[in-house]
Specification:
This protein has helices spanning about 15-25, 35-40, 45-55, 65-70, 70-80, 100, 115-130, 145-150, 155-170, 175-180, 190-200, 225-245, 250-255, 265-275, 280-290, 290-305, 305-325, 335-350, 355-365, 370-380, 390-395, 425-430, 435-440; strands at about 5-10, 30-35, 55-65, 85-90, 105-110. It is mostly helical and about 450 residues long. It has 3 domains: about 5-130, Toll/interleukin-1 receptor homology (TIR) domain (Rossmann fold, 3-Layer(aba) Sandwich); about 145-240, no CATH class; about 275-440. Strands 2-1-3-4-5 form a 5-stranded parallel sheet, with helices on both faces. Helix 17 packs across helix 18 (about 335-350), helix 18 (about 335-350) packs parallel to helix 20 and helix 20 runs parallel beside helix 22 (about 425-430). The relative contact order is 0.04.
Length: about 450
């Protein structure tokens, strides 16, 4: 018997439509189960039907006047409801559905011209990808565990929260097993609530699973944002942080390669704050593979544990950024902060003036305004007069060469809203000769 299929419940009078339904779903790579096709002579009807429904991830019930009167159809969809299998009513004729069946979102197939096949396939694909709401009941589970599992599917969110809290406080192996199982529940508040409960318990087996949810699945900013929203979100972030603080550096290091881990950034931050020189291989790996925000965190930590390595990385990355043709990842908002940090390392540690001049001559020609702006500041702070003619020429060619593309994120000039100037550019101007200032004034930049 096929597993991970859709069970199609229908009355024999609708068998032609059921055959079309089966064909449409299987064309979309969704396996189906029909009693006409699967049951063989001599097999127990009730047992086979029950197993077919239990092994399905969803039940599609074809509803017509005849189907509404059918005891077999009623048995199949009610069995699915009791087994917590998602049910999708496909309505062929305009009829009043049973009150329990009417609770589910149905699809209107009454028109023979336009039928929502795409919507049906989309709904089934989503259910298959998310998994059903069913959670395995551990053997010999106490009654309160069974009640909590039932409440996970309660339409009232407060009941679901109470169920998670009951399992968290129980300190029972079955309760923890159910919470781990709930990490893949179809409802996001159940998934996230189970994760936070396991973190508060200190259940480290959660680190070995691949379906850990993100708190953003629940705490997504929706306007207007209430104080209660922020309070709950802050409490969730605090729970994650407290869980990470209890882990060893080796345990955190094992989390970092998992790009699907929703709290990887927080884990990297904790690791970077506590790691020592012996952990620099982990930092170098994350630096190489991560985006600009991760590179920034790793470089800050390397400055602490191996300043020489940090300086060489900073120089290498500034060269790479200068020579790149502005790929998509260079547009990240965190890039200017990484550039500033890299230049700070160069200013502090690079004593070879020839190397500094070589680097700045390269970075000042970059197409990236942030890189040119920090290069200008660096040249001014180090009083590298050899570069002043180059700065003057750049100003003549492009009066805006020191401006950032991120105007809204930086200070604006006193000249007005139409003259945004970066904080870095203003710092750089203090160190540039008077002649360059006069030239910029003539070009009405400020």
């Amino acid at each position: 018997m096929p597993m991970n299929h859709v069970f199609i419940s229908y009355n024999q009078s609708d068998s032609d439509f059921a055959a079309v339904l089966m064909t449409e779903l299987e064309k979309a790579n969704i396996d189906t189960w029909l009693d006409k096709r699967q049951l063989r002579a001599g097999q127990d009807w009730s047992q086979e039907i029950d197993e077919g429904i239990r092994d399905s991830f969803a039940l599609v019930v074809v509803m017509s006047r005849e189907a509404k009167l059918s005891e077999y159809v009623a048995y199949e969809w009610s069995f699915a409801v009791g087994a917590k299998i998602p049910v999708i009513p496909v309505v062929l004729e305009k009829i009043e559905l049973h009150p329990r069946l009417a609770r589910f979102q149905n699809l209107d197939f009454t028109s023979k011209r336009v039928r929502p096949w795409d919507e049906l396939v989309k709904d089934l694909t989503r259910i298959r990808n998310q998994g059903s709401t069913r959670i395995n009941v551990p053997k010999n589970s106490p009654q309160f565990v069974r009640r909590a599992i039932e409440d996970f599917d309660n339409p009232n969110v407060d009941h679901r929260k109470a169920a998670i809290k009951t399992l968290e406080k129980a300190c029972h192996p079955a309760a923890q097993a159910v919470l781990r199982d709930a990490l893949s529940h179809v409802l996001p508040d159940v998934r996230v609530g189970a994760m936070l409960a396991l973190m508060r318990i200190g259940d480290k087996t959660m680190l070995t699973v691949n379906n850990v949810p993100s708190i953003d699945e629940v705490f997504v900013c929706k306007y207007p944002i209430s104080k209660e929203f922020w309070a709950e979100r802050d409490a969730a972030v605090k729970t994650v942080n407290e869980f990470l603080m209890k882990l060893s550096l080796d345990e955190i290091a094992n989390i970092l390669p998992n790009n699907n881990c929703p709290f990887r950034w927080q884990a990297l931050y904790f690791f970077s704050q506590q790691c020592e020189a012996k952990h620099q291989d982990v930092l170098l790996r994350e630096f190489e593979n991560g985006g600009w925000g991760i590179k920034d965190i790793c470089l800050q930590s390397l400055i602490r544990v191996n300043i020489r390595k940090a300086m060489e990385l900073a120089i290498s990355m500034l060269r790479r950024i200068s020579m790149d043709k502005i790929p998509q990842d260079l547009q990240e908002a965190s890039l200017p902060y990484f550039i500033r940090l890299a230049f700070d390392v160069v200013l502090r540690e690079l004593t070879d003036k020839a190397r500094v001049l070589e680097l700045l001559r390269l970075t000042l020609q970059s197409e990236i305004p942030a890189l040119r702006g920090y290069s200008c500041e660096c040249a001014g702070r180090m009083k590298l007069r050899e570069l002043f003619p180059m700065l003057e020429k750049l100003t003549q060619d492009n009066a805006e060469f020191m401006f950032f593309p991120f105007d809204d994120n930086f200070l604006r000039s006193n000249a007005g809203q139409n003259a945004p100037v970066s904080e870095v550019a203003k710092l750089a101007l203090k160190s540039i000769p008077k002649r360059l200032k006069e030239l910029r004034a003539k070009k009405n930049v400020q």
